[in-house]
Amino acid sequence: MRSLANARRPWIALRNPNFRLYFGGQIVSLSGTWMQRIGQSWLVLDLDPSPLALGTLTVLQFAPILLLSLFAGSIVDRFSKRWLVFVLQAAALVQATALAALVLTHTVQIWHVYVLAAMLGTISAFDSPARQTFVSELVPREEIQSAVGLNASAFNVARIFGPGVGGLIIAAAGVGWCFAINAASYVAVLVALAAMRGDALLPGERSRGRVLGDIAGGLRYVVREPEIGGPLLLAVFVGTFGYNFSVALPLLARYTFGAGAAGFGLLNAAQGVGSLVGALIVASRTTPTVETLVVAASVFAVLLIALGASPAFIVAALVLVFVGIAGVNATTGTNALLQLRSEPAYRGRVLSLYFIAFAGTTPFGGAFTGAIANEWNVRVALFVNAALVVVGAALALLYVRRRRPLAAAVGDRAGRG
Questions:
Q1: Distance, CA of 116 to CA of 93 (rounded, Å)
Q2: Model's pTM, two decimal places?
């Protein structure tokens, strides 16, 4: 009963001092990250105004996640999450500073942006699973869903604030200041991590085996557990085809609706408002199931169709609020389910697979979306992507329902043995 009551109290994780520090630092840092994201997309369109240029940027930023995350998951399961996150956030500060310096000195070329995007992707391959897994060391198990939901809320508060302010900064002072502010924002996370009480952390069991053996063991674990494998399969389709807003939104803003940087920021902020609401819903409800994740992903797909069919800018902004609600219920719900269902010794590897599924597949989705938008238009790209998300939801549900009896039978035999 206690865990059920806690699941319905979305703020309960904030009673932990270490989590409060982490939460506050994340809001500041992620606001800067969102300024950099929209600034980076806008900068690429200024340097090379084509959908394929945005697709190339997406490929370079997310390909390292696909290539390195399995290895990263094994590393995350071996070391102190706190200091691993500290080192990686410091590296991200260096990346943002370099990009700001190039733009503000008017020496930036598109290959600079591509190289630094690949650098950020490499950092993210290790940083994302480390940060997500670290959440489970900041709060007791019964408060993990609250912490995951609040972590997503911080992400989406930043998504509301960052793009809106970023769009205004681009219009008023130039895109380089978005990168400079992002570099400064990383200091908040570094200070928060340094200020945490080490004796209040709840570190889980660490892996001690060989790296390749750890990777193989993690893959076997995912296949063996349908309640983990099914959500990961769903995340592949949602991440590859659903969450390509870094390509779709600037194209909608600039070419479909003729809006400027401020309008681009408003579209991002509208999605962020919905995402914040969705994150609070996840934080306040009981543990999601594969079935509820499938429903959320299907609703998300329908709303992508509505976004593609939007006749005016204001309609698209309104639809994006609901896109945000449904999308976060699918993605953050998946994250919470994986953290709650996975064994602590496997959690880093499970979450690294989640980031491969959700973010590592983005290069394919970004190139796919950019190519369709280049050949036809961004509306057609949204329709095609929505259809593929529905296919993924159906496959995930079918996988889980076929694997559950087998997993139960194996568990029964193990129990009798």
A1: 12
A2: 0.71
